[in-house]
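User: I'm putting together notes for a lab meeting next week and I want to include a structural view of one of the chains we've been expressing. I don't have a solved structure, so I'd like a prediction I can at least talk through. The sequence is below, exactly as it appears in our construct file.
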Amino acid sequence: MDDGWSVASRASEGDLLLTYRSAPQSCVRDLFVVDSPVERVKAGWKPGYDYMAAIARVATLSEPLTWSNMRAETRLSRAGFLNGAMAGRPPASAYWHVLLEMIVTADPELAWLAKRFCPDHLQPSR
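Assistant: Thanks for the context. Below is the predicted structure for the 126-residue chain, given as structure tokens.
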């Protein structure tokens, strides 16, 4: 896969990816969707193999989800992705309803995300 991106081994085509930008931005600004089957291939950027897939941007947040705003949201107090300092590829599915609410409150034009990525249709984290 020449144009793939490194994704979690448990990712599937159609999954939503929230990409976190580390300091100094410290925020989620872009949302992508896994746009192809996930393949385990020889990595071109590190020794060994990696899981790769094509991804497609579905939204750029005009008001990003900042680290400090997510940490201040009490409903995210037990979110592993925040408690682990955004290290690795922790699933956020269990908290998607909160993140979606934060996104749409900040930018009502992104309300369409609720229909396409409805929290009620999410599968439990794999």
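A couple of points you could mention at the meeting. The helical segments are 67-72, 80-83, 96-106, 112-116. The mean pLDDT is 86.

User: Perfect, that's what I needed.
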